[in-house]
Design brief:
Layout: H1 9-28, H2 37-45, H3 50-60, E1 65-68, H4 75-80, E2 84-87, H5 96-99, H6 109-119, H7 124-128, E3 131-135, H8 139-151, E4 156-159, H9 167-188, H10 194-217, H11 227-236, H12 242-261, E5 273-278, H13 287-293, E6 298-303, H14 308-311, H15 321-333, H16 344-356, E7 361-367, H17 371-387, E8 391-396, H18 403-417
Parallel strand pairs: 1-2, 1-3, 3-4, 5-6, 5-7, 7-8
C-alpha cells in the first residue's frame, strides 16, 4: 500500500520511529490519564497505518477522499456527497529544506510543513486524496496553494474567505458555499439533497457537541483531563471517522463525568490554569503544551482552530437544502479567525473563555511569520490587561532550538501567577 502511494518508505519509517518516541515521552509518561484515552492512543498509533488503509478501502468502494487544512471547509457538504474529509500533514519540520526551494524562508512553519511533507513524500493523506480544498485565510497560504496545486498534480480547489463580515462579505461567502456544493456534486456525481444534507449536518453537529462536552468538563476544578490529552483529541477530530470519533469521545466524557463527581483531577485543585490562544497546532506540534504542563500549570482551553474555534457553533438541523446552505454559511462566518478585519468578536470570545474555564493566565501562541495572529496578540494583551489577567505572547516554529528558552519563560510566568 505504501509503495502504491508513492511514499519515501525509508524516510517514512524514520519519521514514524521518531514520532513514536516523542509520543511515548510526551503523552504516555503522563500520570493518572483517563482509561478512555487508550482509544485515542490507538488512533494516533495508526494515523499512518490502519486509518490510511480505511481510506484506501473507501476509495475502492468509490468514495472520494477530500483533504483540508482549515476549519472553514464545510465537512457537512463533503459528507453529504458520501465523501471523507481528512486533515493533511503540516505540524512538523519535515522537508523544510526542500520547501524553502519553493517558498521564501520567512514563510510560516505550517505552510512550509505541508509543502515539505509533500516534497519529501511523507504524507500518505496527501497521496490518498482525490481533491484538496484550500482557503484564502492568509496571503502565505493563498500563494503557496498555487505551488501546491502544481506539485500535487492539480488536486487543489480553493475557497475564497472574505476579509470583512459585513453584508458584502457574507454574500461572497454564501456564494462560495454554493460554488463548493456544485464542485462536490460535479466531482462525485452525487446530488446534494435535503435528506443527505440533513444527515451529514447531524453527524457533524454530534461531533461538535461531543467536543463541547469535553471542553465544559475541563472547566471544573480540578480538571479531569490534561490539556495535552484534550489537544490530542481535538487534533484527531480532523482525521478519524466522525461517527466513531463521537461515540468514543462521549464514552471518554462519561468517564470524565465520574472523575468530576469524585473530585479526581489530573492536577491538584490549586494548579495554575492556562488558556492557550492563537495559531493552530497540527499533529505533532505538541511543544508548547508539553512545556506548559511540565512547568507546574494545566491548560484548560484552546482558543484555536484545533480547539474552540472548530466546535463553538453548530448548524441548525432539519431544514431544506437552500436554508441549510444559508445556515452553513452563517455558521462558518461565526468563526473568529484573525484573517478578518475588524475582529473584535475574537476578543470577546477569549474574554468569555477566560471566565468559563476559570483561567488564571493566557499564553498567546503564534507561529513565526503568521502575521494575522502575531499582530492580533497586541489586542489580546490589551483585552487581558483590562481584565487584569496575566498574559504572555510567544512566537515560535516547529524546531526544538528554543525549547530551553521557552521553558524558562513559561516557568517564570507560572511562578508569577502563583
Amino acid at each position: 500500500m505504501w509503495s502504491s502511494l508513492g511514499l519515501n518508505l525509508e524516510a517514512h519509517e524514520g519519521l514514524l520511529n521518531f514520532l513514536g518516541g516523542a509520543y511515548k515521552d510526551i503523552y504516555l509518561s503522563q500520570k493518572n490519564r483517563p482509561k478512555g484515552m487508550e482509544y485515542f492512543d490507538f488512533v494516533i498509533s495508526e494515523v499512518h497505518g490502519l486509518r490510511i488503509k480505511e481510506l484506501m478501502d473507501a476509495k475502492e468502494e468509490g468514495r472520494k477522499i477530500i483533504g483540508t487544512f482549515c476549519v472553514y471547509v464545510p465537512e457537512e457538504l463533503i459528507l453529504a456527497v458520501n465523501g471523507i474529509s481528512v486533515g493533511l500533514c503540516a505540524g512538523a519540520e519535515v522537508g523544510t529544506q526542500e520547501a524553502e526551494k519553493y517558498l521564501p524562508r520567512n514563510t510560516c512553519a505550517l505552510i512550509k510543513g505541508f509543502v515539505g511533507f509533500k516534497l519529501a513524500s511523507l504524507c500518505p493523506y496527501v497521496e490518498a486524496t482525490d481533491l484538496i480544498v484550500g482557503e484564502t485565510t492568509c496571503d502565505g497560504k493563498k500563494k503557496a496553494y498555487e505551488i501546491f496545486d502544481e506539485i500535487t498534480g492539480g488536486k487543489l480547489y480553493v475557497m475564497e474567505i472574505p476579509n470583512r463580515k459585513g453584508d458584502e462579505g457574507r454574500k461572497l461567502w454564501r456564494s462560495e458555499i454554493e460554488r463548493f456544493k456544485e464542485k462536490l456534486e460535479e466531482f462525485t456525481g452525487i446530488k446534494i439533497t435535503e435528506e443527505n444534507l440533513s444527515k451529514s449536518v447531524k453527524i457533524v453537529n454530534e461531533k461538535r457537541k461531543a467536543l463541547q462536552r469535553l471542553a465544559t468538563l475541563r472547566a471544573t476544578k480540578p480538571t479531569p483531563i490534561s490539556g495535552l490529552d484534550a489537544l490530542l483529541i481535538n487534533q484527531i477530530s480532523f482525521y478519524d471517522d466522525p461517527v466513531r470519533f463521537t461515540d468514543m469521545l462521549n464514552k471518554l466524557c462519561d468517564e470524565l463525568d465520574e472523575r468530576v463527581k469524585n473530585g479526581n483531577g489530573v492536577f491538584s485543585k490549586d494548579t495554575p490554569r492556562i488558556l492557550v490562544s492563537g495559531s493552530p497546532m497540527a499533529i505533532p506540534n505538541w511543544k508548547l503544551p508539553f512545556i506548559i504542563e511540565t512547568s507546574g500549570a494545566v491548560i484548560v482551553g484552546e482558543e484555536a482552530c484545533v480547539g474552540e474555534r472548530n466546535f463553538r457553533n453548530l448548524t441548525e438541523e432539519n431544514m431544506g437544502v437552500k436554508e441549510t446552505l444559508d445556515n452553513i454559511a452563517s455558521r462558518y462566518m461565526g468563526i473568529d479567525c484573525a484573517c478578518f478585519t475588524p475582529n473584535d468578536e475574537r476578543m470577546t470570545n477569549i474574554s468569555d473563555m477566560v471566565d468559563k474555564y476559570k483561567a488564571d493566565g493566557v499564553i498567546h501562541y503564534s507561529l513565526q511569520f503568521c502575521t494575522p495572529f502575531t499582530v492580533e496578540s497586541y489586542k489580546v494583551k490589551k483585552t487581558m490587561d483590562k481584565k487584569e489577567v496575566p498574559f504572555m505572547a510567544l512566537e515560535t516554529d516547529y524546531s526544538m532550538e528554543d525549547f530551553g528558552q521557552f521553558k524558562t519563560r513559561v516557568e517564570a510566568f507560572v511562578e508569577m501567577i502563583k
